Amino acid sequence: MDFTQYITKSGTSLKEKATRNAKTNQWFTASTPAIDRYNEIVMPEGIRMDNFLKNPIFGWGHDVYGWSVLDSFIGKVVDYVKTPETLDIEVEFIPDAGKHPDGSGYSYLDMVKGGFLSAVSIGFRGVGFHEEEKDGKGKVRIWDETELLEVSLVGIPANPEATRKSLELGFENQLVKDFTNSPAPSHDADTAAEIKRAFQAFKIRQMFKN
Fold first, then answer.
1. pTM for the whole thing?
2. What is the pLDDT of residue 52?
């Protein structure tokens, strides 16, 4: 059974685990067998990764399909550990991705290290599933087999196990202080950000419709 629609699932957590490069790399949990907010489960052991590892995209907000902008590609997956209970990934961030062209502002890596962003989301092609009745949840769709297409950093995860597990002491408070002291963005900047968020949401809705 082959389902060709493209699906995005969020719900991951940063792992306390040694990285290849402490300055640029972070561990996240990309999938667990938990029931997510869509009343579905993505089984970690059934996630195909062969094609993904040839092009291990790590983006922002799933804005990596079709007419994507270069700024949406913020890193790459450099390692992973897959078990029946979890798919953990190590991400190497582009250090300045997310900053303004003049170098001001904060990168996605800064936001992760500061604890302001801590969740990731997987985009996949569904291959096979079955449905089961779960206590208190009704009928739950369980994705037994999927093909991983990409992983993205997101603001709001779907998986209830999406919690940040590690912080660098002192960095968060400094980042909070810097944000407090930063000048308010211009109206034009706010408008542009809203347009970009609306466009990203539209593209994700279109993926569900196809």
1. 0.70
2. 96
